Amino acid sequence: MGLRGPAPEPTALKIIRGNPGKRTLNKLEPNRQALSASQIIHRAPKHLNEDANAWWRYYARVYADSRIVTEVDLTMLSQLAAATAEKLEFERKLAETGPLYKSPTTGYVQISPLYSLVSTARNREYRLLREFGASPSSRTAVQAVDAAGKTDDPWERL
Fold it and tell me: Domains of the chain: which residue ranges?
């Protein structure tokens, strides 16, 4: 089961809003340094296949420009690259075989099991992309950091 309730607000946002809930602020919130595209590309996991490795390089270039990938995000980035490659592989196989097939045991026409695999892979990729702010609505929850590990937010210094 997923997390309950709304996602927690970043401490910097609470400070800007004047801490409306009057709860204690997290003074120990991690502040990590963003990685460059070359740093991300050179840390590609060995277990990724050729397609996933190509997606790793693509996402490294895209997200390095946004300055949101830190050392601790590399595991999720490898999952995203693998999920994208897997989704495309399942979509290719589904396009080859078609969404329906004739059951060898009953002779009835049924929906291909690949259809379910494609749907699951799409959802997995979408959830991971949301974590990196790939959709307009999720982008508001992502905060970029500069080379020194500081955010672009002038209010952060409070």
Answer: 11-157
